[in-house]
Design goal:
single chain, five-stranded parallel beta sheet, binds coenzyme A, 6 helices
Length: 162
């Protein structure tokens, strides 16, 4: 069975991530969406909240699962017998960071290949920070994230303003 890991912070998951996941799920037998820790980020949602939001958002993708992990991505990918790590490439600006991470990951686990997939161009401008900012400042973010995520964002903003 060909297993791929799709790691990210997913704070929160957007339609751009789901687009990449749908493409990956057509290539691999199983894709494990993995909520991971990026030490440079302070997420708005807890890991548990992010896992739950992703589970609800991707129920239609039958060969995708959601998990979380702390630690080294390549260690986790080996434990899962993954053959690939999937990353989305939206624009040239993503490239340098992704290139560095892919090469470092290859050094750590030579048999696991990083596969870059391009989401639909309508999601090129989209990232989780923009969605969080729109939510915090009262902008319109409908159509950028699934309905369940919209709802959770509204609840989170309400709880922060109490
Ligand atoms: N649609 C919309 N947004 C997308 C996207 C897509 N298709 N693809 C990426 N993005 C956005 C994300 O929303 C995120 O936006 P943000 O910065 O505004 O939050 C940004 O692009 C990139 O984030 P993400 O894909 O979540 O990756 P990351 O850089 O936060 O985390 C990890 C990368 C978690 C995979 C990496 O840090 C990791 O492997 N950590 C584990 C520790 C480890 O092994 N370190 C060694 C690495 S060499």
């Amino acid at each position: 069975m060909k297993i791929a890991i799709y790691p990210g912070t997913f704070d929160p998951i957007t339609f751009g991530h789901i687009d990449v996941l749908e493409r990956a799920s057509e290539i691999f037998d199983k894709v494990i969406v993995t909520v991971s820790t990026n030490s440079a980020k302070t997420p708005l949602f807890s890991v548990e909240e992010r896992v739950e939001m992703i589970r609800d958002a991707i129920v239609k993708i039958k060969n995708a699962e959601v998990e979380s992990f702390h630690g080294l991505l390549m260690q986790y990918a080996k434990e899962k017998n993954a053959i690939a790590v999937v990353r989305g490439l939206r624009a040239v600006s993503d490239f340098e960071y992704e290139f560095q991470m892919a090469l470092m990951n290859r050094k750590l686990a030579q048999k696991i290949t990083t596969v870059f997939l391009m989401p639909h161009e309508k999601y090129t401008y989209l990232n989780s920070s923009i969605v969080r900012e729109l939510a915090l400042l009262g902008g319109n973010y409908s159509g950028l994230v699934p309905k369940n995520v919209e709802k959770k964002l509204k609840e989170k903003i309400r709880s922060l303003s109490k």
